[in-house]
Amino acid sequence: MSVSTLKAVVDRAFAERYGVPAINVVNDLTMEAVLAGAVEARSPVIVQTSVKTVKSIGSRVLFSMWESMTAGIDVPVVLHLDHCPERAVITECLERGWNSVLFDASRLPVAENQRQTVEVVAEARTFGAHVEGEIESITGVEDGIGSDTASARQSLEISLRFIEETGVDVFAPAIGNAHGVYTREPVLDFRRVSDIVSAHPIPIALHGGSGLTPGQFSELIALGCAKVNISTALKITFMQSSLAYLKDAEARDKWDPPSLFGHVRTDIVALTRGLAEQFGSAGKA
């Protein structure tokens, strides 16, 4: 098993109607902990890196971490570049070894988005990589990319034309979901997912997963959301776990960084394992 492809992982999940956690990592600790959680759950996992993370750590260092941490791993894992509007960064990551990318040209007119996505798909294929596409911005800013203003939703006809003419492997529609922390329970357009899947069976990516209810997750996964993105929940877990440990360390006047790292790792492993169990991917490796 070990390093797999996006298509292999999500196609099976789509056929069997479970969701694969696609978790944005921010450093070496979170990458290792997410992978360890997937191993514990016997679940496939998609490890995601934002453009911000790629630029802050560097693609060479990030990919070296990935190669080291996945050597000998026995569950299917994928390395995915999330929400990238920059063609140069996509090329850099594909050349480095990422095997999945989301080309986010949602701010462009649909025709131009489609034209460039065709080019990205062709480029990715030369590396044996796969592509996720979208034509509408998911509301909310994540790692400096996006907008808090909801974008107009395209018609089913336009969505299907984009899917068919670009050849993307996964499609991410806007359905009322949002990046970041929800201030209230979102109102989701379940029908939009079912209409797309009925007309063109393709694995759907669910963005803005942090904060959805268990019922919403279950229904969307049953409809075909085979890739479930989680970013905010990991960031919150990372920061709150660190804060709790540091407050206790201050109270005890005990300062031991490796113990801090171990504490945070435990919480992120538990988060990953819990997501796999919730989405139905546990035991699917």
TrEMBL record:
Cofactor section: Zn(2+)
Matches recorded under SUPFAM superfamilies: Aldolase
GO biological process: carbohydrate metabolic process
Active site location: D82
A Pfam family the protein falls into: F_bP_aldolase
PANTHER family registered for this protein in UniProt: D-TAGATOSE-1,6-BISPHOSPHATE ALDOLASE, D-TAGATOSE-1,6-BISPHOSPHATE ALDOLASE SUBUNIT GATY-RELATED
Descriptive protein name: Class II fructose-bisphosphate aldolase
Native organism taxonomy: Bacteria, Bacillati, Actinomycetota, Actinomycetes, Micrococcales
